[in-house]
Specification:
The complex is a heterodimer of chains A (319) and B (581). By secondary structure, chain A is mostly helical. Chain A is built from 11 helices and 4 strands, in the order H-H-H-H-E-E-E-H-H-H-H-E-H-H-H. In chain B, a hairpin with a 2-residue loop joins strand 1 and strand 2. In chain B, helix 17 crosses helix 19 and helix 20 crosses helix 22 (519-533). The chains are: A mainly alpha (319), B mainly alpha (581).
Chain lengths: 319, 581
């Protein structure tokens, strides 16, 4: 039974990571019906932005935990957000907006192009920024005193503090997001635009700005996820966005794409399924090498039996 | 042309300068010719050795050809002043404009290539500078010229013999050019030649000569296709047993065949498949398993014909498994699900190594030592001499792939013209309307998906033998993106476009090693720019073009006319009715 609880904790923290990224897919899809394939790379840019902030701060090591958690970590998250939001807005403005009325294939292909471009751009040029390490190989992520490597023990169950950070970040972001969507003017404009863009425009809503804020919100959460990923795995590399983005999309579909709560639930379910599969599937197919396969099999099963997702997909109005 | 107009002075003010521009352009082109008397570079390293005075290298002879052509374009309107058949047949001025730009670009590339390859512009000799000056002069002269009216050459009635001769000569020229390009070793020389060929082709198009060639081709379609295949068939003989080039050529064919299969799915039906490489991989792994290799999991070794069919079938069954659930929901899901499927395939192939799963593929080591193909007692691995030319292993596979490619092309073209193909295009243009018109959208989409997978499986079976070893890391997502880039670059929904796109994407990295590190970066950008500025691809399918440029009235009329002609062609009754009126 201990194994079950342990895997549940592992799954929830992994799922929280997926959920943070999945929100970006879902918000953008809810408003422009575009699968922003490059969102995984936005997440990667966020992680690199956080790392760069740490370098700019003078690569602080051996800090007290207070300084690390309340000084360096928020600064890194903020730096990551600035990087990811800037890149997301640029791609929206330069690549997606001109194609808004084009056949659906066009923005999708553009998204793949952006995804490949961003990966390669970071691989080739991140190391050229003064002070930054070569990014062609994985870069060790800075350790945050008080989080990295620390764990709580509850009986035989070990809880890494990086997992606590991820789950906590998801909780805070979800509350913030709920408030933003339901209680602010921009958030309500988002709901209106997702329901009917042309009527929303007639009501005086600046649809372009709403779309941009959707991209920005998704990118900001992806940056948080980027930091959480760095703390969890201890390193970042230019390829990290591909698989994580794919999983997060799976999570978004699982919960019902376009539905923010759905993305959170979908992410958590996916994470738990993945970690349970490596433990409770007997025989060779239960080995960790298969965990990605089980996640994608889940995606296909959802599409067969419940294409609208667990919570149904109706755009951000359900948020 | 629009952008040229926006950057130049108003046309009225230039009217007085037409005569001087013609003279200046002619002089510029003659200057370019004169440059061949001087060495272009001090060093022998640059381009293909352009250091000798008065002894032009092969590339310089090509430049000579272009310069003479441009000189004629500028000079003829000087001599033939009155409008007449000769004057109207060809768009002299427009051609001269593009020829002028071309001379400039080629000159610039020559000087830059010399400078980069020898480590400084110091090594550029007078000849090189003359080329650049001639280019600048020609550019200015060309920009001043008024564009000419549309050329009438495309409407000429030409005897059939002449037409066929023109086709044969044209394809012969393409074959020679391809063989010559492959024989160039230096990156600078290759780039120079590529730019030269592009500029020459563009100038020819703008003069209207291509209009006439297109007419010849349209009148003799079968001859053209046959001649193209003969040219491709002869290609190995031009390589003198160069294995490296034949290997590249065979890879280009395998890549083209796969891209053509993808083109059915993406170009005709409009379904974005991002895991297409998995179907190629499924074919390759199946064929390798059944090849009798000592690493294969089974000893059963059926004849190749059977293997090919099994490979295709396995791939298409995978297509069915992945397509049935996803094709019911919105098309956007398909892109991501196929992407996920591609990952499942790669991971699964990695895991079937005996520890994480049954031993079928040997995990990341893959299936090695796939034996050479042997068809009807003919061993593909053994080199032999044919007509005095040594034909190596890759040439054999080249010919085999040519046959496979021909089969895929026949399938593609016939499907495109059939009821099925029209159903597909209808789904692409508007799925809801198609369904309302009684098109079985789900069935047709499944057919396209499984059919495309089958074709990829065929190509994969040959690839397994050509590559000798099959490993999972050959079938990663980037390869799928690469295939998609070929389809998008060349033109979705066309055969020729995909062949062109696949050739460019496969050949360039092989020849331009220095940019191999930036390859993917540029392909990412390429996808974005193509979608933004020319979503229909280099060689556009007219109907497809119309979808992306819905406001283009002229194009709409053209497409409509074509459709009516096509309809009449296949419905003789309609013509009879017309006559009765």
């Amino acid at each position: 039974m201990d194994l079950f609880w342990q895997q549940l904790i592992n799954g929830l923290s992994l799922g929280a990571l997926y959920a943070l990224i999945a929100v970006g897919y879902t918000v953008v899809y809810g408003i422009v019906q575009l699968i922003n394939f490059a969102h995984g790379e936005i997440f990667m840019v966020g992680a690199f932005g956080a790392f760069a902030t740490w370098v700019v701060l003078g690569s602080p090591k051996q800090l007290s935990w207070q300084a690390a958690i309340f000084g360096v970590l928020p600064a890194m998250i903020l730096g990551g957000m600035i990087a990811s939001v800037a890149v997301a807005l640029l791609t929206e403005r330069l690549a997606y907006r001109p194609l808004r009325d084009a056949p659906r294939l066009a923005p999708l292909i553009t998204a793949i192009g952006i995804s490949v471009f961003l990966q390669e751009f970071v691989r080739l040029f991140f190391g050229d920024i003064p002070g930054m390490p070569d990014s062609k190989r994985a870069i060790p992520f800075p350790t945050i005193t008080g989080i990295s490597g620390e764990a709580w023990h509850l009986g035989n169950v070990t809880i890494q503090l990086s997992s606590v950070f991820t789950i906590g970040a998801l909780a805070i972001c979800t509350v913030f997001l709920w408030f933003y969507v339901n209680r602010t003017k921009t958030g309500r404009a988002m709901i209106a635009t997702s329901q009917d863009p042309s009527t929303a425009r007639l009501m005086g809503i600046n649809v372009d700005r709403v779309i941009m804020s959707a991209f920005a919100v998704g990118a900001a959460l992806a940056a948080v996820a980027g930091v959480a990923h760095g703390l969890r795995y201890g390193n970042i590399d230019f390829r990290m966005g591909f698989l994580a983005g794919l999983k997060a999309f799976t999570a978004a579909v699982l919960g019902g794409i376009g539905n923010i709560n759905g993305a959170v639930v979908g992410g958590l379910v996916l994470g738990v399924v993945e970690s349970m599969a490596t433990t409770f599937i007997p025989g060779q197919f239960g080995s960790p090498a298969w965990k990605d396969v089980w996640a994608f099999v889940l995606l296909i099963l959802v599409l067969v039996f419940r294409p609208q997702g667990l919570l149904g997909s109706k755009g951000v109005d359900r948020a | 042309m629009k952008f040229l107009d926006s950057l130049s002075i108003p046309r009225e003010k230039l009217a007085a300068f037409q005569l001087p521009a013609h003279i200046a352009g002619t002089v510029a082109a003659l200057l370019g010719i004169a440059s061949l008397v001087f060495p272009w570079s001090y060093s022998h390293v640059a381009l293909d050795d352009v250091a000798y005075a008065g002894a032009p290298s092969a590339l310089q002879f090509n430049y000579l050809g272009l310069a003479i052509f441009v000189a004629v374009l500028f000079a003829v309107p000087l001599v033939v002043r009155k409008p007449g058949k000769l004057r109207d047949a060809v768009a002299w001025n427009t051609g001269a404009k593009f020829g002028g730009i071309g001379l400039f670009v080629v000159g610039l590339v020559a000087v830059l290539a010399i400078g980069l390859e020898t480590g400084g512009l110091v090594n550029v000799d007078p000849g090189g500078w003359i080329v650049l000056v001639a280019g600048i002069l020609a550019l200015v002269a060309g920009l001043v010229l008024d564009p000419s009216p549309a050329p009438s050459m495309g409407k000429f009635k030409t005897p059939r013999v002449v037409q066929i001769l023109a086709i044969a000569l044209g394809l012969g020229a393409v074959l020679m050019a391809a063989a010559f390009a492959l024989s160039l070793d230096g990156a600078g020389a290759f780039l120079f030649y590529l730019v030269f060929a592009g500029v020459l082709a563009l100038t020819l198009v703008r003069t209207g000569v291509f209009g006439w060639l297109a007419q010849c081709a349209a009148d003799n379609k079968q001859v053209l296709v046959l001649a193209a295949f003969v040219a491709a068939f002869v290609f190995p003989f031009t390589q003198n047993g160069s294995e490296a080039n034949m290997s590249i050529a065979t890879q280009v064919l395998i890549f083209s065949a796969t891209a053509l299969g993808l083109n059915i799915v993406v170009g005709l039906v409009g379904l974005l498949d991002l895991g297409y490489i998995a179907f190629l991989g499924a074919g390759a792994f199946t064929a390798a398993t059944l090849s009798g290799s000592v690493y294969a999991a089974t000893n059963w070794h059926p004849p190749f014909i059977v293997t090919v069919l099994i490979s295709g079938t396995v791939a298409s069954i995978l297509g069915l498994i992945i397509g049935t659930p996803t094709l019911r929901v919105s098309g956007d899901y398909l892109a991501i699900v196929t992407l996920a499927f591609g990952e499942i395939f790669r991971i699964t192939m990695n895991n079937l190594d005996g520890t994480d799963g049954p031993r079928i593929t040997n995990g990341s080591n893959g299936i090695n030592n796939v034996p050479e193909l042997s068809l009807l007692g003919f061993n593909f691995g053994a080199p032999h001499t044919l007509l005095g030319v040594e034909i190596g292993r890759f040439a054999n596979y080249f010919w085999l792939m040519l046959v496979v490619l021909a089969v895929i092309m026949v399938v593609f073209v016939n499907l495109n013209r059939s009821r099925i193909g029209r159903g597909w295009v209808a789904i692409r243009e508007d799925e809801l309307a198609a369904e309302a018109m009684g098109v079985n959208t789900f069935g047709l989409k499944i057919l396209a998906f499984a059919g495309g997978a089958f074709l990829a499986g065929l190509a994969g079976a040959v690839k397994a033998h050509h590559d000798v070893s099959v490993t999972p890391d050959q079938y990663v997502f980037l390869e799928s993106a690469f295939l998609l880039a070929a389809v998008v670059l060349g033109g979705m929904g066309t055969v020729l476009g995909v062949l062109v796109g696949a050739t460019i994407l496969k050949l360039l990295p092989e020849k331009l090693r220095f940019f191999s590190d930036y390859r993917l970066l540029l392909f990412g950008l390429l996808l974005v720019f193509m979608m933004r500025f020319r979503p229909e691809g280099l060689i556009a399918d007219e109907r497809r073009q119309l979808e992306f440029h819905a406001e283009d009235e002229e194009l709409a009329e053209e497409v409509e006319e074509d459709l009516i002609n096509y309809h009449d062609h296949y419905n003789p009754d309609a013509l009879v009715k017309e006559e009765l009126k």
